[in-house]
Amino acid sequence: MEKSQTTTRAKHQEATTLNVRQRGVALISVLLIVVIATVLSVSMIRNQNLTIHKARNVSDQSQAKQYAIGGEELARQILWQDTDNSPDVDHLQEDWAAEDLIFDFEHGEVAVRIEDLQGRFNINSLMMPGNAGQQAKVRFSQLLLHVGLDTMYIDRAIDWMDKDIAARPLGAEDYAYLGLDRPYRTGGQMLVDTTELRLLLDMDAESFDLLLPFVSAIPDASASLNVNTAPPEVLQIVSDRLTSDMSQDILIERDTQEGYKMVTEFLQSTYVAGMDIAAEGLGVQSSFFEIRIRARYLERNAYLTSIVQRGADGSMRVIYRNFARKVFPDAVQEEEQS
After folding, report:
1. First to last CA, the chain
2. pLDDT tens by residue, 238-287
3. What is the pLDDT of residue 249?
4. Using CB atoms within 10 A of its CB, is residue 273 exposed (0-12), middle (13-18) or buried (19+)?
5. Are 224 and 122 in contact, with CB atoms under 8 Å apart?
6. CA 294, CA 68: separation in Å to the nearest integer?
7. How far is the C-alpha of 336 from the C-alpha of 338, rounded, in Å?
8. In what order do the strands lie in the sheet with 101-105?
9. Quick check: 336 pLDDT over 70?
């Protein structure tokens, strides 16, 4: 009898231990499932948040880009209004030339800078035939001397743009470029962008930076140099007798009277009269402008550089767009300080 009770007790204890073990395994399994579910939930939430942030960033950046495009449209409207106000003369006292064109929008702003490309020397004018081309070469030579560069770049720029393979005395054609460590060919056409000058043989970064602020690549080779918007360094190229001080005096005179109304008025100025300056290639009205835009929406920035051609009737044609970060100098300084 006692043996039977002992056996029963042993079986009961064994069953109890088994149940406890089973409950322990079940608890561990449940905890493991909870841990796995928690990890998966956290991962899903994190991925979802990341996706939401990415979508929001893309949306904000897209909105900033649209603001930049809107800034271009604002600039085009300003230039159109300028045509309506004064169709025959462009000068730096007009609204389009203001340096504080900043427009506030909901959650952001757009800063616009409009620059007259005809206030710079047009490299493509070197390709004009006859007296006009010769005059362009003389003026480019003056510009190179003023910025401290060798006049050999006249021949090299022409060789870069012409279609033949005969090199000018100081120029360079395909064979000179194909022998470089990284060979390439000449353009064989007028410059599309002034950055092509960097590709001229022996044109280093320092020389390029010296020249860049004073040149443009206008597709119309016959576009005149606007004496009302040209900086003093460019004004000096119209005559080798025109000094830096004299060009500064011209700037004061023209700005005081809000620009010269005709080229003859400029040529009759006290500071240039008697210098026998050729009127060919000079003007007081412009058709090609560079628009630089910095747009901000919330914490996102967008940049746009556009070149527009303005017709005689005020119509606008965009001939170039670049969304790379190319902004006006003061904006760069402000961002570096912030």
Report:
1. 95
2. 998 888 899 999 999 999 999 999 999 999 998 888 888 889 999 999 99
3. 92
4. exposed
5. no
6. 7
7. 6
8. 101-105, 108-116, 288-297, 300-310, 316-322
9. no
Q: pLDDT digit string (tens) for 151-199? A: 999 999 999 999 999 999 999 999 999 999 999 999 999 999 999 999 9
pLDDT score of 201:
95
- Measured distance CA(188)–CA(157) in Å, rounded: 11
Q: At what angle do helices 152-161 and 130-147 cross, to 10 degrees?
A: 130
pLDDT in tens, 88-113: 999 999 999 998 889 888 888 999 99
What is the model's pLDDT at position 12?
57
Cα→Cα distances 157→83, 118, 173, 196, 218, Å? 34, 19, 10, 10, 15
The identity of residue 183, as a single letter, is: P
pLDDT tens-digit map of 314-326: 899 999 999 887 6
Write out the H or E segment, with its range, that includes residue 226: strand 225-226
Say which amino acid occupies 24: G
- Quick one: CA dihedral 261, 264, 266, 269, positive or negative? negative
Helix (H) or strand (E) holding 48: helix 2-85
| Mean pLDDT across the chain | 87
Residue 292 DSSP class: E
By C-alpha distance, which of 147, 95, 102, 92 is closest to 121? 147
The pTM is what?
A: 0.81
Do the Cβ atoms of 229 and 216 come closer than 8 Å? no
Angle at the Cα of 246 from the Cα atoms of 243 and 252, rounded to 5 degrees: 145
CA–CA gap between residue 172 and residue 153 (Å, rounded) = 10
For 308, the 3-state DSSP assignment is strand
> For the chain, what is the radius of gyration of the CA atoms?
35
Give the type of residue at 174: D
- Within 8 A by CB and 6+ apart from 71, the residues are 103, 110, 111, 112, 291, 293, 295, 304
